[in-house]
Amino acid sequence: MDFVEIWFDGPMSVDRDDVEDALNSALQGIGEVTGGGTGETGSNLDVEVDGEFPKDLVVGKIFAVINELEVGDSARVRPGDGDLWIRLSEWPLSAP
User: Fold this and answer.
1) Structure confidence at residue 94 (pLDDT)
2) Are 77 and 8 in contact, with CB atoms under 8 Å apart?
3) pTM of the prediction?
């Protein structure tokens, strides 16, 4: 896995920039937010990650930030270039 896409398609009580800053802190040494955008149906963040780290570790850190900022299921995460999108409610928060 070399990247993760995060799509925000529901109401959020924080700005996307706040999520970006928190992700960059949480992923220090593992990855960083490299882009983002806003459109008619929501907004997104692109995260580049070091492929040496396990997918569960990276996605777990992302969902920890999403949970901490109370973004909840307004965000969905796509690890890598597959078709699988995951919401916070579908991720075990006890994962790494």
Assistant:
1) 58
2) no
3) 0.92
How many Cα atoms are found within 13 Å in the side-chain-facing hemisphere of 7? Answer: 13
Residue 96 pLDDT > 60: no
CATH of domain 3-90: 3.30.70
Q: Two tokens at 45?
A: 């963040």
Stated as kind and residue range, the H or E segment containing 75 is strand 75-79
CA angle 74, 83, 64 (to 5 degrees): 40
CA gyration radius, the chain = 12
**φ, ψ dihedrals at 77, nearest 5°:** -120, 135
> Using N-to-C axis directions, what is the helix angle for 55-68 and 16-26, rounded to 10°?
140
